UniProtKB/TrEMBL annotation:
Native species: Candidatus Actinomarina minuta
UniProt name for this protein: Selenophosphate synthase
Keywords: ATP-binding, Kinase, Nucleotide-binding, Selenium, Transferase
Annotated ranges, domain PurM-like C-terminal: 74-249
Pfam families: AIRS (PF00586), AIRS_C (PF02769)
Lineage: Bacteria, Bacillati, Actinomycetota, Actinomycetes, Candidatus Actinomarinidae
One CC-aspect GO term: cytoplasm
GO molecular function terms noted in the UniProt entry: ATP binding; selenide, water dikinase activity
Length: 254
């Protein structure tokens, strides 16, 4: 973690008989818009006819200074998250054609927000370890950070930011199969009270374009609110790193 994107090749698979080129034009326009925001130049690409639409980039970048590894957490570190959770649940609601316009806007705004400001914030906070929260959900990526170390995490269930509509759709029984697999994969490494079961479902939710999860020393001289305001970002303190006890991740109320 810590690289700066420089150039990219655009990769497109498109079912030309089923989806119009007008839709493809909008996809390409959206990709160009985000790459411009990231300061990354699209220098070419490849396209093929395919049964399913696929779109992405092969990106080349550089790291000039700090290389942040996800496993470099330290005892006493504070754990921060830079985006709310729940995009997987809302995406499932969209696929089922039951998502409201407000929920679609909520999750789209979240997923199209770059993590450049989040990385700047983590860097200025003196981060020890950084990862992004994507397909394995917060719990899966957090367990990757802990690895086989002699450390545990106290995760504050009442401080984890959740998208408003994600909670609503979860109550309606919408929960992606990928998120269910995430939960089963981490269950033996987490401990929580039954009253937090719905929160646990949410923090196992598979994310698309999630935020950064990072740890930094507790005794920082930075005024966090002032730093958030300066950079233009919202960040949540969601836990802390302690010596190993009970289980790898202990979900508690702060």
């Amino acid at each position: 973690m810590g690289g700066k994107p420089i150039s990219a090749l655009q990769l497109v698979s498109w079912p030309r008989e089923d989806l119009s080129f007008e839709i493809l034009s909008e996809v390409l326009r959206g990709g160009l818009e985000i790459m411009n925001k990231a300061g990354c130049t699209i220098i070419g690409g490849h396209s093929i006819d395919d049964k399913e639409p696929k779109y992405g980039f092969a990106v080349t970048g550089i790291i000039e200074e700090n290389i942040y590894r996800k496993t470099n957490i330290k005892e006493g570190d504070v754990l921060y998250l830079t985006k709310p959770l729940g995009s997987g649940i809302i995406s499932s609601a969209i696929k089922k054609n039951i998502a409201s316009k407000d929920s679609i806007k909520e999750v789209t705004d979240l997923m199209t927000t770059l993590n450049d400001k989040a990385l700047q914030f983590a860097s200025e906070m003196g981060a020890n370890a950084i990862t992004d929260v994507t397909g394995f959900g917060l719990l899966g990526h957090l367990l990757e950070m802990i690895g086989e170390s002699d450390l545990s995490v106290n995760l504050y269930s009442n401080k984890i930011p959740i998208l408003k509509y994600a909670e609503q759709y979860l109550e309606q029984g919408i929960y992606p199969s990928g998120s269910k697999r995430n939960l089963e994969a981490v269950r033996e490494n987490i401990q929580f009270d039954k009253s937090d079961e719905s929160v646990v479902n949410l923090i196992a939710d598979a994310q698309t374009s999630g935020g950064l999860l990072f740890s930094s020393p507790k005794n920082t001289s930075e005024n966090i609110d002032a730093l958030c305001q300066k950079i233009g970002i919202q960040v949540w303190e969601i836990g802390n790193i302690v010596s190993k006890y009970k289980n790898k991740v202990n979900i508690i109320k702060s």
